[in-house]
Amino acid sequence: MTENIEKFIAEFAHSLHENTFVKMTLGNYRGNDAHLQKLLIRLVETKKGTRLFFLFRQDTRDTAKNFDFTEGVAKVKEFLVADFFSGHLFTLENDLQLDVGKRGKSRLNIAKATFKTKPEVSHDREKQFLVNSNSFYLKALGITTDRGEIRDKQQDKWRQINKFVETLGSLIDKSLLADRRELNVVDMGSGKGYLTFAAYDYFKNTRGIGVKIIGVDTKSELVSIDNDIARASEFEDLKFVHGWIGNYNLQNVDVLIALHACNTATDDAIFKGIKAEADLIVVAPCCHQEIRPQMKAPDFMKGIFRHGVMLEREAETLTDGLRALLLEKSGYSTKLFEFISTEHTPKNNMIVGTRTTKNVDTEKIAEQIEAIKNFYGIKEQRLESLLEKF
Ligand SMILES: C[S@@+](CC[C@H](N)C(=O)[O-])C[C@H]1O[C@@H](n2cnc3c(N)ncnc32)[C@H](O)[C@@H]1O
Fold it and tell me: What percent of the chain is modeled with pLDDT above 90?
Protein backbone atom coordinates (compact mmCIF):
# COMPACT_ATOMS: atom_id res chain seq x y z
CA MET A 1 0.00 0.00 0.00
CA THR A 2 1.43 3.38 -0.95
CA GLU A 3 2.08 6.18 1.51
CA ASN A 4 -0.77 8.20 0.02
CA ILE A 5 -3.33 5.43 0.46
CA GLU A 6 -2.11 4.96 4.05
CA LYS A 7 -2.47 8.67 4.69
CA PHE A 8 -5.97 8.74 3.16
CA ILE A 9 -7.08 5.81 5.36
CA ALA A 10 -5.48 7.39 8.44
CA GLU A 11 -7.39 10.64 7.80
CA PHE A 12 -10.60 8.66 7.39
CA ALA A 13 -10.08 6.84 10.73
CA HIS A 14 -9.04 10.12 12.40
CA SER A 15 -12.20 11.91 11.17
CA LEU A 16 -14.38 9.11 12.58
CA HIS A 17 -12.55 9.29 15.89
CA GLU A 18 -12.75 13.09 16.07
CA ASN A 19 -16.35 13.18 14.83
CA THR A 20 -15.42 15.33 11.82
CA PHE A 21 -16.25 12.79 9.09
CA VAL A 22 -18.82 14.09 6.56
CA LYS A 23 -18.85 11.59 3.67
CA MET A 24 -16.67 9.61 1.28
CA THR A 25 -16.91 8.39 -2.30
CA LEU A 26 -14.81 5.68 -3.89
CA GLY A 27 -14.78 5.64 -7.68
CA ASN A 28 -12.83 4.49 -10.73
CA TYR A 29 -13.81 0.89 -10.07
CA ARG A 30 -11.73 -1.76 -11.78
CA GLY A 31 -12.78 -4.85 -9.82
CA ASN A 32 -14.56 -8.02 -10.94
CA ASP A 33 -18.16 -6.89 -10.45
CA ALA A 34 -19.40 -5.93 -13.94
CA HIS A 35 -22.18 -3.79 -12.47
CA LEU A 36 -20.51 -1.88 -9.64
CA GLN A 37 -19.67 1.75 -10.39
CA LYS A 38 -19.20 3.68 -7.16
CA LEU A 39 -19.27 3.36 -3.40
CA LEU A 40 -20.84 6.17 -1.38
CA ILE A 41 -20.22 6.21 2.36
CA ARG A 42 -21.95 8.29 5.02
CA LEU A 43 -23.04 7.94 8.63
CA VAL A 44 -26.30 6.37 9.67
CA GLU A 45 -27.97 6.08 13.09
CA THR A 46 -28.93 2.47 13.92
CA LYS A 47 -30.24 0.70 17.02
CA LYS A 48 -26.65 -0.35 17.72
CA GLY A 49 -25.34 3.24 17.48
CA THR A 50 -23.71 5.26 14.67
CA ARG A 51 -22.57 3.12 11.78
CA LEU A 52 -20.99 3.66 8.36
CA PHE A 53 -23.60 3.28 5.61
CA PHE A 54 -22.07 1.88 2.41
CA LEU A 55 -24.18 2.44 -0.70
CA PHE A 56 -22.89 0.35 -3.62
CA ARG A 57 -24.07 2.14 -6.74
CA GLN A 58 -24.57 -0.35 -9.56
CA ASP A 59 -25.67 0.24 -13.11
CA THR A 60 -29.18 -1.10 -12.57
CA ARG A 61 -29.73 -0.84 -8.82
CA ASP A 62 -28.16 0.18 -5.54
CA THR A 63 -27.32 -2.12 -2.63
CA ALA A 64 -26.47 -1.02 0.89
CA LYS A 65 -24.72 -2.37 3.98
CA ASN A 66 -23.85 -0.93 7.41
CA PHE A 67 -20.47 -1.42 9.08
CA ASP A 68 -19.09 -0.37 12.44
CA PHE A 69 -16.17 2.06 12.26
CA THR A 70 -13.38 -0.55 12.57
CA GLU A 71 -14.92 -2.83 9.94
CA GLY A 72 -15.67 0.15 7.70
CA VAL A 73 -12.10 1.43 7.77
CA ALA A 74 -10.79 -2.09 7.05
CA LYS A 75 -13.21 -2.43 4.10
CA VAL A 76 -12.15 0.90 2.57
CA LYS A 77 -8.51 -0.14 2.91
CA GLU A 78 -9.24 -3.44 1.18
CA PHE A 79 -11.18 -1.69 -1.61
CA LEU A 80 -8.49 0.94 -2.22
CA VAL A 81 -5.76 -1.63 -2.53
CA ALA A 82 -7.65 -3.81 -5.01
CA ASP A 83 -10.79 -2.38 -6.61
CA PHE A 84 -11.37 1.36 -6.48
CA PHE A 85 -8.71 3.67 -7.87
CA SER A 86 -9.98 6.99 -6.58
CA GLY A 87 -11.33 8.25 -3.28
CA HIS A 88 -12.85 11.53 -2.16
CA LEU A 89 -13.02 12.13 1.58
CA PHE A 90 -14.87 15.11 3.05
CA THR A 91 -14.23 16.03 6.69
CA LEU A 92 -14.83 19.23 8.61
CA GLU A 93 -11.04 19.79 8.48
CA ASN A 94 -10.15 18.98 4.84
CA ASP A 95 -11.25 17.61 1.48
CA LEU A 96 -8.94 14.79 0.39
CA GLN A 97 -8.79 13.54 -3.18
CA LEU A 98 -6.85 10.33 -3.81
CA ASP A 99 -6.04 9.05 -7.30
CA VAL A 100 -4.18 5.80 -7.88
CA GLY A 101 -2.59 5.26 -11.29
CA LYS A 102 -2.40 1.99 -13.22
CA ARG A 103 1.13 1.21 -12.01
CA GLY A 104 0.26 1.89 -8.37
CA LYS A 105 1.58 5.47 -8.44
CA SER A 106 -0.74 7.70 -6.46
CA ARG A 107 -1.54 11.36 -5.86
CA LEU A 108 -3.16 12.84 -2.78
CA ASN A 109 -4.56 16.33 -2.96
CA ILE A 110 -5.58 18.01 0.31
CA ALA A 111 -7.79 21.09 0.03
CA LYS A 112 -9.80 23.37 2.30
CA ALA A 113 -12.93 21.76 3.72
CA THR A 114 -16.09 22.22 1.62
CA PHE A 115 -18.34 21.39 4.57
CA LYS A 116 -18.37 23.63 7.64
CA THR A 117 -20.97 21.60 9.53
CA LYS A 118 -21.91 17.94 9.52
CA PRO A 119 -25.03 16.94 7.63
CA GLU A 120 -27.84 15.49 9.73
CA VAL A 121 -27.34 11.78 10.19
CA SER A 122 -30.31 9.87 8.85
CA HIS A 123 -31.78 6.90 10.64
CA ASP A 124 -31.61 3.52 8.97
CA ARG A 125 -35.39 3.27 9.45
CA GLU A 126 -35.75 6.31 7.19
CA LYS A 127 -36.61 5.72 3.57
CA GLN A 128 -33.59 5.75 1.28
CA PHE A 129 -34.56 7.81 -1.77
CA LEU A 130 -33.79 6.79 -5.37
CA VAL A 131 -33.11 10.34 -6.51
CA ASN A 132 -29.74 11.75 -5.52
CA SER A 133 -30.52 14.86 -3.44
CA ASN A 134 -27.07 16.33 -4.14
CA SER A 135 -27.77 16.81 -7.83
CA PHE A 136 -27.24 20.27 -9.25
CA TYR A 137 -30.61 20.38 -11.03
CA LEU A 138 -32.49 19.99 -7.72
CA LYS A 139 -30.70 23.07 -6.39
CA ALA A 140 -31.31 25.00 -9.59
CA LEU A 141 -35.02 24.09 -9.49
CA GLY A 142 -35.26 25.19 -5.85
CA ILE A 143 -35.99 21.73 -4.38
CA THR A 144 -32.77 21.58 -2.34
CA THR A 145 -30.57 24.12 -0.59
CA ASP A 146 -26.94 24.68 -1.63
CA ARG A 147 -26.00 21.96 0.86
CA GLY A 148 -28.29 19.44 -0.79
CA GLU A 149 -30.97 19.50 1.92
CA ILE A 150 -34.60 19.32 0.85
CA ARG A 151 -36.29 22.67 1.48
CA ASP A 152 -39.15 22.39 4.00
CA LYS A 153 -41.73 23.61 1.50
CA GLN A 154 -40.52 21.15 -1.15
CA GLN A 155 -40.89 17.96 0.89
CA ASP A 156 -44.09 16.92 -0.93
CA LYS A 157 -42.59 17.64 -4.33
CA TRP A 158 -39.48 15.63 -3.31
CA ARG A 159 -41.62 12.61 -2.34
CA GLN A 160 -43.57 12.95 -5.57
CA ILE A 161 -40.35 13.05 -7.65
CA ASN A 162 -39.00 9.93 -5.95
CA LYS A 163 -42.28 8.05 -6.19
CA PHE A 164 -42.56 8.95 -9.87
CA VAL A 165 -39.05 7.69 -10.67
CA GLU A 166 -39.65 4.49 -8.68
CA THR A 167 -42.99 3.92 -10.46
CA LEU A 168 -41.57 4.60 -13.91
CA GLY A 169 -38.60 2.27 -13.29
CA SER A 170 -40.86 -0.54 -12.21
CA LEU A 171 -43.29 0.00 -15.14
CA ILE A 172 -40.39 -0.20 -17.59
CA ASP A 173 -39.13 -3.37 -15.91
CA LYS A 174 -42.51 -4.99 -16.49
CA SER A 175 -42.89 -3.83 -20.09
CA LEU A 176 -41.46 -4.89 -23.46
CA LEU A 177 -38.69 -2.36 -22.74
CA ALA A 178 -37.32 -4.28 -19.74
CA ASP A 179 -33.98 -5.27 -21.29
CA ARG A 180 -33.42 -2.18 -23.41
CA ARG A 181 -30.12 -0.37 -22.88
CA GLU A 182 -31.34 2.68 -24.84
CA LEU A 183 -34.62 4.51 -24.37
CA ASN A 184 -36.32 7.40 -26.14
CA VAL A 185 -38.65 9.26 -23.81
CA VAL A 186 -40.87 12.26 -24.48
CA ASP A 187 -42.41 14.18 -21.58
CA MET A 188 -45.36 16.24 -22.80
CA GLY A 189 -46.26 19.27 -20.70
CA SER A 190 -42.91 19.07 -18.87
CA GLY A 191 -43.49 22.39 -17.04
CA LYS A 192 -40.66 23.23 -14.64
CA GLY A 193 -39.11 19.86 -15.47
CA TYR A 194 -38.71 18.38 -11.96
CA LEU A 195 -39.86 14.95 -13.06
CA THR A 196 -38.12 15.12 -16.43
CA PHE A 197 -34.71 15.87 -14.84
CA ALA A 198 -35.17 13.23 -12.16
CA ALA A 199 -36.15 10.57 -14.73
CA TYR A 200 -33.12 11.43 -16.89
CA ASP A 201 -30.72 11.39 -13.93
CA TYR A 202 -32.11 8.09 -12.66
CA PHE A 203 -32.01 6.21 -15.97
CA LYS A 204 -28.73 7.69 -17.17
CA ASN A 205 -26.69 7.88 -13.99
CA THR A 206 -28.21 5.33 -11.63
CA ARG A 207 -29.23 2.64 -14.11
CA GLY A 208 -26.60 3.46 -16.73
CA ILE A 209 -29.14 3.33 -19.60
CA GLY A 210 -28.52 5.41 -22.74
CA VAL A 211 -31.64 7.52 -22.31
CA LYS A 212 -32.71 10.44 -24.50
CA ILE A 213 -35.48 12.63 -23.12
CA ILE A 214 -37.33 15.51 -24.75
CA GLY A 215 -39.61 17.73 -22.66
CA VAL A 216 -42.31 19.66 -24.55
CA ASP A 217 -44.13 22.67 -23.14
CA THR A 218 -45.98 25.77 -24.33
CA LYS A 219 -44.16 27.99 -21.84
CA SER A 220 -41.05 29.18 -23.65
CA GLU A 221 -39.51 30.74 -20.52
CA LEU A 222 -39.60 27.36 -18.73
CA VAL A 223 -38.18 25.63 -21.81
CA SER A 224 -35.29 28.08 -21.89
CA ILE A 225 -34.51 27.79 -18.14
CA ASP A 226 -34.70 23.99 -18.28
CA ASN A 227 -32.32 23.87 -21.25
CA ASP A 228 -29.84 26.05 -19.31
CA ILE A 229 -30.05 23.75 -16.28
CA ALA A 230 -29.67 20.64 -18.48
CA ARG A 231 -26.53 22.15 -20.05
CA ALA A 232 -25.08 23.12 -16.66
CA SER A 233 -25.79 19.59 -15.38
CA GLU A 234 -24.03 18.15 -18.45
CA PHE A 235 -27.21 16.18 -19.25
CA GLU A 236 -26.42 16.22 -22.97
CA ASP A 237 -29.32 13.97 -24.01
CA LEU A 238 -31.99 15.94 -22.17
CA LYS A 239 -33.60 18.67 -24.26
CA PHE A 240 -36.65 20.86 -23.84
CA VAL A 241 -38.60 22.23 -26.79
CA HIS A 242 -41.30 24.84 -27.07
CA GLY A 243 -44.49 23.43 -28.56
CA TRP A 244 -48.07 22.25 -28.23
CA ILE A 245 -48.76 18.60 -27.58
CA GLY A 246 -51.42 18.47 -30.29
CA ASN A 247 -48.97 19.78 -32.94
CA TYR A 248 -45.89 17.93 -31.80
CA ASN A 249 -44.43 15.59 -34.41
CA LEU A 250 -43.87 12.58 -32.18
CA GLN A 251 -41.75 9.84 -33.72
CA ASN A 252 -39.46 7.13 -32.49
CA VAL A 253 -40.63 7.12 -28.89
CA ASP A 254 -40.49 4.24 -26.40
CA VAL A 255 -42.01 5.98 -23.40
CA LEU A 256 -44.56 8.78 -23.58
CA ILE A 257 -45.12 10.72 -20.36
CA ALA A 258 -47.71 13.44 -19.71
CA LEU A 259 -48.06 14.39 -16.07
CA HIS A 260 -50.67 16.92 -15.06
CA ALA A 261 -51.08 18.25 -18.60
CA CYS A 262 -54.25 20.28 -18.36
CA ASN A 263 -57.68 18.98 -19.38
CA THR A 264 -57.74 17.42 -22.89
CA ALA A 265 -53.99 17.94 -23.39
CA THR A 266 -53.79 14.52 -21.72
CA ASP A 267 -55.96 13.08 -24.53
CA ASP A 268 -53.72 14.71 -27.14
CA ALA A 269 -50.68 13.16 -25.48
CA ILE A 270 -52.21 9.66 -25.23
CA PHE A 271 -53.25 9.90 -28.89
CA LYS A 272 -49.73 10.91 -29.95
CA GLY A 273 -48.31 7.98 -27.96
CA ILE A 274 -50.70 5.46 -29.53
CA LYS A 275 -50.05 6.84 -33.02
CA ALA A 276 -46.28 6.64 -32.54
CA GLU A 277 -46.64 3.10 -31.08
CA ALA A 278 -44.95 3.98 -27.81
CA ASP A 279 -44.39 0.85 -25.71
CA LEU A 280 -45.31 2.65 -22.52
CA ILE A 281 -47.74 5.54 -22.04
CA VAL A 282 -47.80 7.10 -18.58
CA VAL A 283 -50.18 9.95 -17.81
CA ALA A 284 -51.42 11.63 -14.65
CA PRO A 285 -54.46 13.66 -15.78
CA CYS A 286 -55.64 16.90 -14.23
CA CYS A 287 -58.48 19.43 -14.66
CA HIS A 288 -61.12 17.14 -16.16
CA GLN A 289 -63.34 19.75 -17.83
CA GLU A 290 -64.62 18.10 -20.99
CA ILE A 291 -67.18 15.54 -19.78
CA ARG A 292 -68.85 17.30 -16.85
CA PRO A 293 -70.91 19.86 -18.82
CA GLN A 294 -72.10 17.08 -21.15
CA MET A 295 -73.27 14.74 -18.39
CA LYS A 296 -77.00 14.25 -17.96
CA ALA A 297 -77.75 12.24 -14.87
CA PRO A 298 -80.33 9.49 -15.31
CA ASP A 299 -83.46 10.21 -13.18
CA PHE A 300 -82.60 7.75 -10.42
CA MET A 301 -79.13 9.39 -10.00
CA LYS A 302 -80.35 12.97 -9.84
CA GLY A 303 -80.46 12.97 -6.02
CA ILE A 304 -76.72 12.24 -6.01
CA PHE A 305 -75.53 14.38 -8.90
CA ARG A 306 -77.31 17.54 -7.71
CA HIS A 307 -74.25 17.78 -5.41
CA GLY A 308 -71.56 19.40 -7.53
CA VAL A 309 -68.73 17.53 -5.84
CA MET A 310 -70.29 14.14 -6.67
CA LEU A 311 -70.84 15.11 -10.30
CA GLU A 312 -67.26 16.31 -10.51
CA ARG A 313 -65.87 13.05 -9.11
CA GLU A 314 -68.04 11.00 -11.44
CA ALA A 315 -66.90 13.09 -14.40
CA GLU A 316 -63.27 12.41 -13.44
CA THR A 317 -63.92 8.70 -13.05
CA LEU A 318 -65.66 8.52 -16.41
CA THR A 319 -63.03 10.57 -18.24
CA ASP A 320 -60.12 8.49 -16.97
CA GLY A 321 -62.06 5.24 -17.25
CA LEU A 322 -62.89 5.98 -20.89
CA ARG A 323 -59.26 6.88 -21.57
CA ALA A 324 -58.16 3.52 -20.16
CA LEU A 325 -60.75 1.65 -22.26
CA LEU A 326 -59.66 3.53 -25.39
CA LEU A 327 -56.04 2.59 -24.69
CA GLU A 328 -57.11 -1.05 -24.35
CA LYS A 329 -59.02 -0.84 -27.61
CA SER A 330 -55.79 0.43 -29.20
CA GLY A 331 -53.75 -2.58 -28.07
CA TYR A 332 -52.50 -1.56 -24.64
CA SER A 333 -53.00 -3.28 -21.31
CA THR A 334 -53.84 -0.68 -18.68
CA LYS A 335 -53.53 0.13 -15.01
CA LEU A 336 -55.21 3.00 -13.23
CA PHE A 337 -54.00 3.75 -9.70
CA GLU A 338 -53.09 6.48 -7.20
CA PHE A 339 -49.36 6.90 -7.65
CA ILE A 340 -48.84 8.92 -4.50
CA SER A 341 -51.03 9.48 -1.48
CA THR A 342 -53.49 12.41 -1.65
CA GLU A 343 -51.73 13.89 1.36
CA HIS A 344 -48.86 14.90 -0.98
CA THR A 345 -50.86 16.01 -4.05
CA PRO A 346 -54.53 15.91 -5.02
CA LYS A 347 -53.58 15.23 -8.67
CA ASN A 348 -52.48 11.67 -8.19
CA ASN A 349 -54.31 9.29 -10.51
CA MET A 350 -52.04 7.63 -12.98
CA ILE A 351 -53.13 5.87 -16.16
CA VAL A 352 -50.57 3.50 -17.61
CA GLY A 353 -50.82 1.85 -21.00
CA THR A 354 -48.34 -0.90 -21.82
CA ARG A 355 -48.31 -2.05 -25.42
CA THR A 356 -49.25 -5.70 -25.57
CA THR A 357 -49.02 -8.42 -28.16
CA LYS A 358 -52.15 -10.13 -26.79
CA ASN A 359 -55.31 -10.18 -28.90
CA VAL A 360 -57.92 -7.68 -27.81
CA ASP A 361 -61.68 -7.93 -28.33
CA THR A 362 -62.03 -4.40 -29.73
CA GLU A 363 -65.74 -4.83 -30.47
CA LYS A 364 -66.55 -5.69 -26.88
CA ILE A 365 -64.59 -2.66 -25.63
CA ALA A 366 -66.33 -0.41 -28.18
CA GLU A 367 -69.70 -1.66 -26.89
CA GLN A 368 -68.72 -0.85 -23.31
CA ILE A 369 -67.64 2.65 -24.29
CA GLU A 370 -70.89 3.23 -26.17
CA ALA A 371 -72.98 1.98 -23.24
CA ILE A 372 -71.24 4.32 -20.79
CA LYS A 373 -71.61 7.30 -23.10
CA ASN A 374 -75.31 6.59 -23.67
CA PHE A 375 -76.01 6.12 -19.97
CA TYR A 376 -74.55 9.52 -19.08
CA GLY A 377 -75.49 11.33 -22.27
CA ILE A 378 -71.88 11.97 -23.22
CA LYS A 379 -71.60 13.17 -26.83
CA GLU A 380 -67.89 13.63 -27.20
CA GLN A 381 -64.63 12.50 -25.63
CA ARG A 382 -61.51 13.96 -27.14
CA LEU A 383 -59.31 10.87 -27.24
CA GLU A 384 -62.10 8.90 -28.88
CA SER A 385 -62.62 11.61 -31.52
CA LEU A 386 -58.89 11.74 -32.28
CA LEU A 387 -58.70 7.96 -32.61
CA GLU A 388 -61.74 7.86 -34.88
CA LYS A 389 -60.07 10.26 -37.34
CA PHE A 390 -56.76 8.37 -37.22
C1 LIG B 1 -49.30 21.44 -14.07
S2 LIG B 1 -47.92 21.57 -15.13
C3 LIG B 1 -47.18 20.00 -14.91
C4 LIG B 1 -45.71 19.98 -15.14
C5 LIG B 1 -45.04 18.62 -14.97
N6 LIG B 1 -45.45 17.65 -15.96
C7 LIG B 1 -45.28 18.07 -13.57
O8 LIG B 1 -46.14 17.17 -13.42
O9 LIG B 1 -44.63 18.52 -12.63
C10 LIG B 1 -48.66 21.44 -16.70
C11 LIG B 1 -47.77 21.89 -17.82
O12 LIG B 1 -48.34 21.46 -19.05
C13 LIG B 1 -48.17 22.47 -20.01
N14 LIG B 1 -49.21 22.27 -21.02
C15 LIG B 1 -50.54 22.32 -20.87
N16 LIG B 1 -51.17 22.10 -22.04
C17 LIG B 1 -50.19 21.90 -22.96
C18 LIG B 1 -50.18 21.63 -24.36
N19 LIG B 1 -51.31 21.49 -25.02
N20 LIG B 1 -49.00 21.50 -24.96
C21 LIG B 1 -47.84 21.60 -24.29
N22 LIG B 1 -47.78 21.87 -22.97
C23 LIG B 1 -48.94 22.02 -22.31
C24 LIG B 1 -48.32 23.76 -19.22
O25 LIG B 1 -47.67 24.84 -19.85
C26 LIG B 1 -47.64 23.38 -17.89
O27 LIG B 1 -46.30 23.76 -17.86
Answer: 68
List the chain domain ranges: 3-128, 152-389
Atom of ligand 1 nearest to the CA of 245: 20
Q: Model-level pTM?
A: 0.71
Residue pLDDT, tens place only, 61-89 = 667 889 999 999 999 999 998 899 999 99
Q: Looking at the structure, give the CATH architecture of the domain made up of residues 152-389.
A: 3-Layer(aba) Sandwich (3.40)
Instruction: Tell me the average pLDDT of the chain.
Output: 91
Mutate to test the pocket of ligand 1, among 190, 200, 225 (most ligand atoms within 8 A of CB): 190
> What are all long-range contacts of 165-169, with beta carbons under 8 Å and residues at least 24 apart?
165/130, 165/131, 165/195, 165/198, 165/199, 165/202, 166/130, 167/282, 167/339, 167/350, 168/199, 168/202, 168/255, 168/257, 168/282, 169/130, 169/202, 169/203, 169/207
Taking the centre of ligand 1 as the mean of its atom positions, its distance from the CA of residue 262, in whole angstroms, is 6
